[in-house]
Amino acid sequence: MGPAQQPTYPDPVAVDAAVSRLRTQPPLVFAGECDELTEKIGAVARGEAFLLQGGDCAETFAGVTADNVRNKLRVILQMAVVLTYAASVPVVKVGRLAGQYAKPRSSDFETRGSGDHEVTLPAYRGDAVNGFEFTPEARAHDPQRLVDVYNASAATLNLVRAFVTGGYADLRQVHAWNTDFVKESAAGQQYEAMANDIERALTFMQAIGADPDEFHRVDFHSSHEALVLEYEHAMTRIDSRTQAPYDVSGHFVWIGERTRQLDGAHVELLSHIKNPIGVKLGPTTTPDDALALAEKLNPHNIPGRLTFITRFGAGRIRDGLPTLIEKVTAAGVQVAWVCDPMHGNTFEASSGYKTRRFDDVIDEVQGFFDVHRSLGTWPGGVHVELTGDDVTECVGGGELLDEAGLADRYESVCDPRLNRVQSLELAFLVAKMLRA
Ligand code: PEP
Ligand code: MN
C-alpha cells in the first residue's frame, strides 16, 4: 500500500511538470524564520509562552482576497491580545493559512442523491487536489493545482507580511480591530473595556518615552498540514546557511491524525526537515505511540521542534490524556502540548450540516487545562478552526446560534469553524483558564 491520503493522478507527465515547476520557485518562508519559531515554541514547551494556532479547516483559492485574509488576521490578533493582556503570557501566533489547502478524508468517494439520481464522485480533498463543485470535471485530481497552491500561498503570505509589519498590527489599532458586528456582542463589549485599559497603558508608556518596536508589529507565522507528499517534497530545500533541509512552504507543518503511522511516508518526510513540526494525537494514541513518534521526529529532544496537538473530544480528554502526558513527561521528552478542541467534537446536525457545539469546544479546553494543572505540566496552547467572518457553522456561544440557524451562512468547504464572536469568546474563556 502506498502512502495514506494521497491524490491519484491519471497523468504522471503532468505530475512531473508541476513538481519541476515547484522546485524552481522561490521559498515562501526562510529557514531562519523557521528556526525563530522553533525557539518560540521552545518557550511554550518550557511553560513560558502560549501558542495560538488558528484558521480555516481548508483554505480555498477563491478565499484569497484582501478582505478575507485581513478578517482572519484581525480575529487572531484580537484573540492574541486578549490572551496576552488578560493572562500576561507571551503568545506565539501561528495561522492555519498560506498553505492549508489539502484535506484527508475518511472516504475516497462522496455519494449524493438517491435511487436513479444517485451520483458517486471522488471526495473533495481540498483545492490542492480537486474542486469542491460536485461534477466529475471538478472532482478529478489535477497536479497543476499544486502550483496554484504555491501561488495562492505566496499571495496570502505577502498580504499577511504587509499587514503585520505595515501598521495594521500596531497595538494602537487595538480598538480599530473591534469593528462592526463583533463590537455589539458581549465578548466585543468585554474587549472594548480591555482595549481602553491597553490604550491608557500605551499613552502612559509614550508619555515616559517608552516606545518599543513590539508595540508596532507582531511576529506571525504560517502553518498547514503536510499532506500531499509531492508538494511538500518539492518545497523542501537545503538551506545554504546550515546545509540542513527545510520545508519552505510554511513555517510550521503538522502531521494529521490519519497520517501519523510511525513507518509511514509523512512521518519519514517530516523527520528529515528542520522546521518546527506538530503531530495530531487522537484518543486511540497510546503512550508508546507518542514516545516512538518523539524518538523518530525529535531524536535530539530539542524543545520547540515537536508539538503534540491532542484532539480527544470533550468526553474523552479527562480520562485519556493523563496517562499520555505522564508517560511522555516521565521519559524526559521535550514537547509542547497543544489542544485542538475541534476535531474530536464534530457531529452531524439533523439538518445534515457538520457542526460542533461551542460548549463542547470549551469543555475540551477546560479538560486539557484541568489535566495539565493536576499533573503539573503546562497547557501550552490551542489549535482552532476559525474565520474572521460572521458565519454560522458551530452551534452555541453567546449569540446562541442553534441548529436551525446553521443554514444562514454555512460557508466552510470542510469542517465547521468558530465565527468571529465565538473566537473572541473562546479567547476570553481561555485567558480565564490561564489565570486560574
Ligand atoms: C484538520 O486539522 O483539519 C484535521 C483533519 O485534523 P485531524 O488530523 O486531527 O483529524
Ligand atoms: Mn478540520
From TrEMBL:
It comes from the Bacteria. Pathway: Metabolic intermediate biosynthesis; chorismate biosynthesis; chorismate from D-erythrose 4-phosphate and phosphoenolpyruvate: step 1/7. GO terms for molecular function: 3-deoxy-7-phosphoheptulonate synthase activity. The keyword Amino-acid biosynthesis applies. Pfam families: DAHP_synth_2. Keywords: Amino-acid biosynthesis, Aromatic amino acid biosynthesis, Transferase. Its EC number is 2.5.1.54. SUPFAM superfamilies: Aldolase. It catalyses: D-erythrose 4-phosphate + phosphoenolpyruvate + H2O = 7-phospho-2-dehydro-3-deoxy-D-arabino-heptonate + phosphate. Belongs to the class-II DAHP synthase family. PANTHER family: PHOSPHO-2-DEHYDRO-3-DEOXYHEPTONATE ALDOLASE, PHOSPHO-2-DEHYDRO-3-DEOXYHEPTONATE ALDOLASE 1, 2. This is Phospho-2-dehydro-3-deoxyheptonate aldolase. It comes from Nocardioides aestuarii.
